[in-house]
UniProtKB/TrEMBL annotation:
Family assignment from sequence similarity: Belongs to the major facilitator superfamily. Nitrate/nitrite porter (TC 2.A.1.8) family.
Main location as per UniProt: membrane
Protein name, UniProt field: NNP family nitrate/nitrite transporter-like MFS transporter
Annotated membrane topology: Multi-pass membrane protein
Keyword Iron annotated: no
Transmembrane domains' residue ranges: 20-40, 52-72, 79-99, 105-125, 137-156, 168-191, 212-235, 241-262, 274-293, 299-320, 332-354, 366-385
Secreted among keywords: no
Domain Major facilitator superfamily (MFS) profile: 14-390
UniProt cross-references to Gene3D superfamilies, sorted A to Z: MFS general substrate transporter like domains (1.20.1250.20)
Swiss-Prot/TrEMBL keywords: Membrane, Nitrate assimilation, Transmembrane, Transmembrane helix, Transport
Gene Ontology molecular function: nitrate transmembrane transporter activity
Compartment list: Cell membrane
Cellular component terms per the entry's GO annotation: plasma membrane
């Protein structure tokens, strides 16, 4: 039977809906990253307090992804996404109308994790429509919604400066989430090929499998590195290079763009050359770039290094989720939630590493050295695991390219 091309298979309105939901949710999830420098003018904060502020939304998203992953499996990703979007209105209203202290802002920051949990519904909605040979690209396109971070870094501080209030940014963010909710409700649909609902014992069995935890570790570095840096770099550029809040956020935008838009590229290339091979290249690249950043070179150099490093991390996100559906196709909703939660924990830890070490040493060098070593460790992990996977489930994967045989694919 002749296989369909990517655009002939699947359901494009649902894929686009998943992208929009993920995109606008990421914009909301990442707002505090650029705004932290502006908010510090109203609520003076130490380096650790700033790190906590931008890390709390990531922690909230990490926890809630497990919840949304469970719901996506039980009630379907569409309804789960709708619940997620409506729930996101809560922290937006609180941030707009309620906050008047740093402690209250911490509560709002944690609740913004509802938006970050969108990952656990958006990716299953998109991925379940597509066959295995197109999983990498489908998940990459939906996952490219992390480009919403670009919207946050590009516009949040400008809006705050224009209106003379950072609180209004929360209020205005309500408009796009409502627009996306309407489109999503009308045009996105659950795939008819959704896996059957899993029992609690089946959930337990998945969690017990070593490969699930390996994917958690891999995604903890790629996604955690991307979202952690996206949320913290405005603070880094403002503190280390003395840039204004808007300029620091604009430079962060340049770095975030590469990670956002190379996610689908990572998935696409992983479909072609193999997810494990792609990940080894990307982890090596990220480790080299982060190690180079630790020398704190001139601004133009550090921006180039972070651009390439974020590109590697973003493409790595797509590459990890080219492999996940092939290993756990029947439990994709649950595994997406678990792996996504691990990625969130990585993103939560990264600002704390940089912030705490900066407060202790007065330099960002130790923090970036540690991040480089973590990326290097991930290279070793995937190198070891791909040799084991090659003898088991990876050997069963067939790529869609006629120029690559199943045997060649297994070697990937």
């Amino acid at each position: 039977m002749e296989k369909k091309s990517f655009w002939q298979s699947g359901h494009k309105p649902s894929l686009f809906g998943a992208f929009l939901y993920f995109d606008i949710s990421f914009m909301i999830w990442g707002m505090l990253g650029p705004l932290a420098v502006v908010i510090a003018e109203d609520f003076p904060m130490s380096p650790v307090q700033k790190a906590n502020l931008v890390a709390l939304p990531i922690l909230g998203g990490s926890i809630l992804r497990l919840v949304l992953g469970f719901l996506a499996d039980r009630i379907g990703p569409k309804l789960t996404a709708q619940i997620g979007m409506l729930s996101t209105l809560i922290p937006l209203l609180l941030g707009w109308l309620w906050v008047d202290s740093l402690n209250q802002l911490y509560i709002v920051a944690l609740l913004l994790g509802i938006a970050g949990a969108s990952f656990a519904a958006a990716l299953p909605l998109a991925g379940q429509w597509y066959p295995k040979e197109h999983q990498g690209l489908a998940m990459g396109i939906a996952g490219a919604g992390n480009s919403g971070t670009v919207l946050a870094t590009l516009f949040a501080n400008r809006i705050a400066q224009y209106f003379g209030s950072w609180e209004i940014v929360f209020g205005l963010a309500i408009i796009p989430i409502i627009i996306v909710f309407i489109y999503f409700s009308l045009f996105a649909h659950n795939s008819p090929n959704r896996p059957a609902k899993k029992t609690l014992s089946e959930y337990s069995n998945v969690i017990k499998q070593r490969d699930a935890w390996v994917f958690c570790a891999l995604y903890c570095v790629t996604f955690g590195g991307f979202v952690g840096l996206a949320n913290y770099l405005t603070i880094f550029f403002n503190t280390q290079y003395g840039l204004s809040p808007i300029m620091a956020a604009d430079i962060t935008t340049l770095c975030v763009i590469s990670g956002s838009f190379f996610r689908p590229v990572g998935g696409f290339l992983a479909d072609r050359i193999g997810g494990t091979r792609m990940l080894m290249i990307l982890y090596a690249g990220a480790a080299i770039m982060l190690a180079s950043v630790s020398f704190l070179p001139p601004l133009i150099v550090v921006v180039a290094l972070l651009f390439i490093g974020m590109m590697c991390l973003g493409a790595g996100n797509g590459s990890v989720f080219q492999l996940v559906p092939q290993r756990f196709g029947g439990e994709i909703g649950l595994v997406t939630g678990i792996v996504g939660a691990a990625g969130g924990l990585g993103g939560y830890a990264l600002p704390l590493i940089l912030g705490r070490l900066y407060q202790l040493t007065g330099s960002y060098t130790p923090g970036f050295i540690i991040l480089s070593l973590i990326a290097g460790g991930s290279f070793i992990l995937i190198f070891v695991m791909q040799m084991k996977w090659r003898r088991s489930w990876l050997s069963k994967i067939h790529t869609p390219r006629t120029a690559i045989t199943p045997i060649d694919s297994a070697k990937a």
